[in-house]
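Protocol step 4 of 6: record predicted structures for both targets in the notebook before any analysis. Target 1:
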Amino acid sequence: MDFNGSDTIPGPRAEDRLPHTAQAAAKIVIVGGFGVGKTTMVGSVSEIKPLTTEETMTQAGVGVDDNFGSASKTATTVAMDFGRIRITDQLVLYLFGTPGQERFWFLWNGLFEGALGAVVLVDTRRLEVSFDVMGRLEERGVPFVVAVNSFPDAPRYPLADLRSALDLTEDVPIMECDVRRRASSRDVLMTLMRFLHSLAMTGSLT
């Protein structure tokens, strides 16, 4: 029963309904360390109001969570972010942003389940965090692309140098992005879809 006394349960908003033309859907995970921009990316690119599970950071996390480079951050994802975007009229991507703090990484296994691919967001001020992130994806066999989020105060390096530093093979796409901009975040997702298509064409995508 709703607040007006009716037995009718309200349905989704018109703008949130899945288009009738949709024929296929894919689950994509957005991963990375704490404060790299995962929640921002899901929010900027989602065509529906994103679901977030952000909670206020407290003193209990001091000395436990590594928030280097994110000292002004006051909230953190504790479960996941969720959004949706149409790539074409037929293809819909469901986006799942993972929690960045290491103590919540146990939730990643469930979020990786059924994922077709992933975006690894990287902060050049904390490249070392990315190794554990990519290692977990490789263990699960989830293909990924790397997107370097362009923070204003972060050092800039040639992508070739970053590829070497991250020990990426030549076939893994790496690009710069600004997750605050919808077009930039969409470009990252399109790059991932092209990469997954190329893997499928060569029989490398299982």
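Target 2:
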Amino acid sequence: MRFQNRRQAGQDLAAALLRRAEGGGYVDPLVLALPRGGVPVAAEIAHALRAPLDVLVVRKIGAPGQPEAGVGAVVGEDPPVFDQEALALLDMTEYQFTQAVARQRAEVHRLESLYREGRPAPRLRDRTVILVDDGLATGVTARAALLHLRRHSPARLVLAIPVCSGLGVVRQHEADDVICLHQPEHFYAVGEWYVDFGQLSDREVIDTLRSVHTRA
């Protein structure tokens, strides 16, 4: 199973969310995208649910010499979340990433300001919060995001992703519901499950957010 692009993945996810909501619906829903790749996916869900869309900026902490290999992640002013198994394989400790955490935390704040264009962060308490990305590999970024959101007492916390690896399944307490459309047996990278997986620019993220009702 491959998705044509992120838009199609979002439409398929939206259909699955609507089926899951039959008879109950979502209380005061809010769709949050992990930028950049999660934004076009989440936009389709926000349209289908007639819900506001915003972003939750989480920055990956990469392994030395392998910035794309995430060993941790940071969001807001929360403590960083690390993949302890990855640290053990690297024979490293969290304290060796202090400078990397500080750099990525500064980038979180910069991107939040850029993408929100002066809008305040949305209210999360007592809402159905649907967290969306374009795929899940190790899951450390999503895990940091879910732990952050849980601290804000949403009524229900849903993780919605088109494709995920077996390693990417979050722990039971971190989300009330996980919707993953495709969990392949052999998983190398998220991009292999899309025909078109072009990188998005910051401008495209901002334009997409502007095109969807973002008041939350």
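Step 5 preliminary note on target 2. Strands lie at 30-33, 53-55, 59-63, 66-74, 81-82, 128-132, 156-163, 177-182. Residues 27 and 192 are 35 Å apart (CA to CA).
Proceed to step 6 after PI sign-off.
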